[in-house]
Amino acid sequence: MPTKDQTLVTLREAHLGPMRFMNILSVFELGIVDLMRKQPNQRFTAEQLGAAVGATPDAIYQLLLLPVKDGLIALDERTGEYTLDGLARLGDEDFARVLPWMNMIKVVCLRQLYYLTDSIRAGEVVGLQKLFGLTGTFYEATLGNDELRSAWGSMMDAVTEFIDPWFFDNVEVGAGQKVLDLAGNTGLGAILTYRHKGVDNLHVTCFDFPEKEAEALANFEAAGLAGHCSFIGGDVFKGVPKGFDLVLIKHFLDMFDRDNVLRILRAVAGALEPGGQVYILVPIYPEEIRESSSVDFFPSYFLGCTMAQGGPQKVSTYSAWLEEAGFEVTRAITQDHATMPADMVPVHGIICGTRKA
What we know:
Helix content: 40-55%
Strand content: 15-25%
Order of helices and strands: HHEHHEEHHHHHEHEHEEHEHEHEE
Oligomer: single chain
Distance between the termini: 48 Å
Shape: globular
Largest sheet: 8 strands, mixed
Structural class: alpha/beta
């Protein structure tokens, strides 16, 4: 059991979290980091930085206290000049991964989380209505809001770019198989499946709401894969298309609570013949949650910002649900922390199941 002081420290860190986040983000948004990166051999005073970004030297001094404390930026106390410290060690690839996350948290999460308690009580994302006049889930709302769609999409593109090679390295696709990408949005997953697993006579079908068909078909055409990828419109809760050997479910099951996850998995089982396979890619919690940073992020994200339900589960939980839905679990793996960038929040798992007779 934690001591009284340890408990108070935990509460203190909760107080500080949002303040620290916005302080660091503001340093980026003002352009201070960009300015220093473009002139790595230059040393800047608060006056010079303030003049460059349109702020007073006093405000710059206050704002940079935290990044100096945390070792992101260095201050020469003798001259009052600033240079990059830890941030100087990051490359373009690192910033391209980190900054979309920070922007998404600001645009999508911070405002909506003011209504987290209300969303939990109401069972719906209250912030969407209060802030944007939108109803339904966040993913439905992004169809009509460019600001939300851009912030979330840029973050998801960074996650997809990182996770897909690992996923497809662990997916077995045979020649001539018919693959269904469940809830495949506008076809990117189908395109990536074909490119990563381009075996002979492979055909990949994207299954999602009918209104996404035109964009998906245009994406297939642009990728030169119109003859290898197709689209079927529908709703997974009303039925899954039959005639496929393999179903991929990526970044989808974590959006729902147990009952809806089982509805989806049972629908997939009903659409597959015995021996048909399903591969599930989901962010997961470790079996020992004290080792996780995902639990710091995802409960608030799903309950307060996107679905008012859902969230990752442990691999053992997903495996049990897959068995309950009529599959035999044949493989379950988790990303190796040692191969991941230190800033990554989600840790993903892959669970493979074979339809029982």
